[in-house]
Design brief:
The protein is an alpha/beta fold. About 35% of the residues lie in helices and about 20% in strands. The protein has one domain (about 5-120): Hypothetical Protein Ychn, Chain: A (3-Layer(aba) Sandwich). The longest helix has 16 residues, at about 15-30. It is globular, with a radius of gyration of 13 Å.
Length: about 120
């Protein structure tokens, strides 16, 4: 079994099923003791701002805001540096516990021993 899972989320509010899938996999991994890293890129970058995930809901899915907060509290959530800059998102605006880091950090994580990478 993977010791770490790195999930890259590229979809925004336009594709809540992908968001739900990524958050469900991440929270399930946390529940089983796997180290979880969730990367917010492209349109998913907006989820780094307070309240953005809370605005969404998907039928037959757990509360997306609660799942997201569980991951922030128990895993690592990172916002892509370039994606943040393109959207004018700054470090002082993001949810506490979310870091802004670049692609070199992403590559380092996915290449680490025991890591499994997924893209949603």
């Amino acid at each position: 079994m993977a010791k770490q899972i790195v999930i890259k989320l590229i979809s925004g509010k336009e594709d809540q099923e992908r968001l739900s899938g990524a958050l469900s996999v991440a929270s399930s991994a946390i529940a089983t003791g796997v180290d979880v890293s969730l990367w917010l890129t492209s349109e998913a970058s907006w989820f780094a701002l307070p309240g953005r995930v809370d605005e969404l809901s998907l039928a037959h899915s757990p509360d997306l805001g609660e799942l997201f907060q569980l991951i922030v509290d128990n895993g690592r959530v990172t916002l892509c540096t370039q994606c943040a800059a393109r959207r004018g998102i700054t470090e002082d605006e993001v949810i506490d516990g979310i870091e802004i880091r670049g692609s070199a950090s992403f590559v380092e994580e996915i290449m680490s021993e025991g890591a499994q990478a997924l893209v949603y």
